[in-house]
Amino acid sequence: MKYGLIIIGGGSAAFAAATKASDLGKTALMVNAELPLGGTCMNVGCMPSKHLLAVGDEVFYSERPRFKSLGSRPAAVFDFGTAMQEMNDMIARMRRKNYVDVLHSLDGVTLVEGKARFAGPNRVEAGGKTYEADKILIATGSITKALPIPGLDNMRWLNNVAALKLRGLPKSLVVIGGGPLGLEFAQMFAHFGSRVTILEAMSQVLPRHEPEIAAELRRSLEGEGIIIHTGVRVEKVAERDGVKTVTFRDGDSQAETEADELLLAAGVQPNTSDLDLDAAGVKVDRGGFIQVNQYYQTDNLDIFAAGDCVGKMALEPVAAKEGALAVENAFTVPVRSINYDYVPSAVFTNPQVASVGITEEEEMRRFNTCLCRTINMDLVPRASAVNETRGVFKMVIHPRNYKILGVHIVAPDAADLIHEAVLAVKFGLTIDDIIDTVHVFPTFSEGIKRVAQSFTRDVSKMSCCVE
Asked: If you write DSSP's letter for every residue of 286-297 in order, what string do you get?
């Protein structure tokens, strides 16, 4: 049978593509392997990690109240095995509701479980059968990148998938990588009670974020007992009697750290190596990511790609948006794309980090100047009311017309707060538009208004509700 569309993958990009194909009245075949339906986000990424982060917050902060009136309290009783089972139950429930049941509801969409490979420009083999389609979408995602560290091949190490399958809580954990995934898992296990050390090769954690943002989050994490080394080079790893030793270079000196478990969180690689892309005329870059144009079209004009395997922004909503646009472009005039400057991102540590738009460094590159301001959380009245001492707000604006180009936040619920900034960046609002908008008082969202006001006045010397 010939299909209108073959989708290789079963994650966010794939499901958005299947939904769009069904909406357009096209028949579609989804070929899924490795992870169950829902892909990384549902099974081993966003959903389970955010569940466990919430559990860790309940454990850790329950005995560390912010208010003197509460005094000290005994630690919450925590059972790691029960937490992992509760997580698995949540995954199964959400997978069925958001993926299995949804797939059954889509007209014209068929699922085949099996590993796919190309058998020609418009043919795919899976499970011993060959399928043909007018258009094909590759949405195979990514996996943890194995680092070329001497000794790593001779020991068992964790990635996010393996970490979520642990049966017992490690007493200690070394995390190689200080990006979003590494920091989330580091704080999660630290809150559970593990002694955690983070090793990051760059000069700051969250290397792609603003320095002020990275510094504030580091201060918060170190305040909770997490050990962080930045600007280090891991030289070798070894395991003896179940203890893992990591040797690293910190400046001119060599150091070692030991732990029960080692977690790699320093990059990903696309799941493209065994697709036989040459048979389809699809090219990849040196990292294996599929090369696409702005409309997610490969060198084979009938084959598109979306999600982590194209290496643009490894975010679940981005993958879904790319998948839907790719299918729309495949069956109509290819004109739809994403402006990635408008896409927000978040790190779900506590406090959270959220960002949208460009950084100070990028503004300097574009305009050879920067108009930026940063305020600390103590200038936000809500923070004082609830004894919150962690957080910063930074805003980047156009040097001539004062339009908001970027906003970067460390704060409780920053991932929710960022959406006012997303709309400001997307629709070209100025700082005056934000200042002139009445905000609820007292809220953390006033931090966005305060940092906008800081371009025109000293916000450390003003009453709470000055416009």
From this structure: TTSPBP--TTSB
